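Proteins fold reproducibly. Next comes an illustrative record:
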Amino acid sequence: MIVKNKERLRTICFLLFIIYIIAIVYFLIFSDMFGRAHYDVRRYNLVPFTEIKRFIIYRGGAIENISFMLNIVGNVVAFIPFGMLIRWARNKKTNALVALLYSLSFTLLIETIQYITKLGVFDVDDIIMNTLGGMIGYLFYYITARIYRRKHAKE
């Protein structure tokens, strides 16, 4: 019974991961919803924490607070599901280093696509925030899995 439920959970998580990937690619590359613009030139920021500092310093009004939430908090929160679901999508045991590398790689892929297509800005701060979000998601998965294992080990 437990094996069947585990396989069902694995299938559901894998499908959620696929839906998540499609959604994140759409919103980060194709959607106009988050101010996506097609630039005439390729834009990039390679200096860590430049945009993060800018958003912190200049937040204050309603518009700036919305921008702050979308850019700083949104970049972290958007990648939490990635970290939570990567273990199930891989169908293998995944440690923190592997989760970090997958989160970093996926973020680099998104940023590179934005740079090449000129549909956004290649921003090292986005890489930092997205990878942090992936690691928070992995940590949430890890803690939840340990609690689950402890609970079921006693039964």
Notes: The longest helix spans residues 124-153. The first strand starts at residue 43 and ends at 45. The radius of gyration is 18 Å.
